[in-house]
Every structure is written in C-alpha cells, then in structure tokens.
Design goal:
234 residues; alpha+beta; DNA polymerase, domain 1; Cytidine Deaminase, domain 2; five-stranded mixed sheet; 9 helices; 5 strands; elongated
C-alpha cells in the first residue's frame, strides 16, 4: 500500500472518520495507523499499518508479536512497537474484565436472553456455538453455518474446531426456527446427539441445545431446551 495520509482527503482520513463514523467503520490497517501516528524511514503510518496486518496475518498473531518482531517491519521503531504492545495489552485486559462480568451461562433462559435479539430478524436458520470456560462464562460466540428456511447442515469438525482453539471446557448449541415454532425436528435431535458423542470424545461437554422461535410454547417461552426435553439422556 503506497497511500500516504496527506494524499487522502481530510474527511476520509482515519482520525476524522473515527470521529464522524465511529471506530467500527475503520479497518485494521486504519486503526493501527492511528496508533502509529506517523511513519518512519519515509513510510506513512498507513503503509506501515498495512504491512503489519499483511505480515502477521491475524490480529491475534500481531498482538502476540514481541517488540523486536514488530520492529522488524520497516517504519516501526521502539516507541511505536511499545505503543502497539500497550494497546493490545489493554485490549486483553478489557476482554478479561468483560468475561469476569458476564453472567454464568448454564441455563437456557440466560442463553436465550443473550441471543434473542440477534436471531429475531433472521429469515434463515442460523447455527451458533457458545464457547464457555470451566466456570461457564463466555469465551466467544461462533457462527457455524446458515441454512435455508427449514434445513441446516452442521458438521462436528466445524463446531469443535473453534472450541479446541479457544480451549473451551464446554459449549452450548444455539439455532433459530424462522417459522416461529421452536419444537426440535428429527434432524435437530440427530445433530445434537452426534455432537454430544463428539464432545465426549474430545472432553468438551455439550451443555445444551437451545432453539429460539416465537412465544408459542404452552409456558409462554419463545425457546426450547433439548436438555430439558430429555434428549441429552439415553
């Protein structure tokens, strides 16, 4: 990337766009460029930020890079490397703080409350996995697949790969029924039992499978729990 900050119209520069549109409107390169402020060795902050993103490939790897590794990118001096390390450490501490404040996610009611609004407007079935630590607090929420109006394909490999990577102790399966009726289908039950068995082999407990719909249940709830319905017991 050869673009320099001074060549970008003022209203399109990263700092101005962050103020006007919010930090979420900026890409990784632009956010890093703001931290760098200016470049070194004849390179702009945008150029240096672009190379950092390209070289390390993922923000997690960039965050884990040492000061020396960051300085190996032309245009990153000691001060800029230290600034990046400080920013990533603050992000790590904030994530840990958020996890500590999250409620324990071991009841279907809490899971449904957390995801209800996200699923409310979905016109197709969407399958997500809630990754939990040993204390049943949220590590991450992973989208696995989207299906058609009434069918969805889920493979154990796609479900447990992110769980293994995140060192999750347990997971909760969640998907929606756009029809509004959360009653599990035969396919839902089969997928659940297949994933329970896969989790047993991998020592990652499948705590529940929550299906979200509309408030059509006799108890007035808009979801069902396959564990509560007895499908987690042979």
């Amino acid at each position: 990337m050869n673009q320099r900050i001074k060549d970008i119209p003022v209203h399109e520069r990263p700092r101005e766009r962050l103020v006007s549109a919010g930090a979420g409107a900026l890409n990784d390169t632009e956010l890093i460029a703001i931290l760098l402020r200016t470049g070194l060795q004849g390179r702009s902050a945008i150029e240096v930020g672009g190379e950092l993103v390209s070289r390390f490939g993922a923000l997690t790897r960039l965050a884990g890079a040492s000061v020396d590794e960051l300085q190996s990118v032309r245009g990153v001096g000691r001060d800029k490397a230290v600034t990046l390390k400080a920013a990533f450490e603050l992000a790590r501490r904030m994530a840990a703080e958020i996890r500590r404040e999250m409620p324990v996610l071991e009841s279907p009611e809490v899971i449904a409350t957390m995801l209800r609004e996200e699923f409310r407007t979905s016109a197709v079935e969407t399958f997500r996995v809630v990754l939990l630590n040993t204390r049943r607090r949220l590590i991450d929420l992973v989208s696995i697949s989207q299906g058609t109006l009434d069918t969805i394909l889920v493979h154990p490999r796609e479900v447990f790969k992110p769980a293994i990577a995140a060192n999750a102790a347990a997971i909760v399966l969640v998907h929606n029924h756009p029809s509004g009726d959360p009653t599990p289908s035969e396919a839902d039950i089969k997928v659940t039992r297949d994933l329970i068995r896969a989790g047993q082999l991998l020592k990652i407990e499948v705590l529940d499978h929550v299906i979200l719909g509309q408030r059509t249940q006799p108890d007035g709830r808009d979801f069902v729990s396959l564990r509560e319905l007895g499908y987690f017991y042979s």
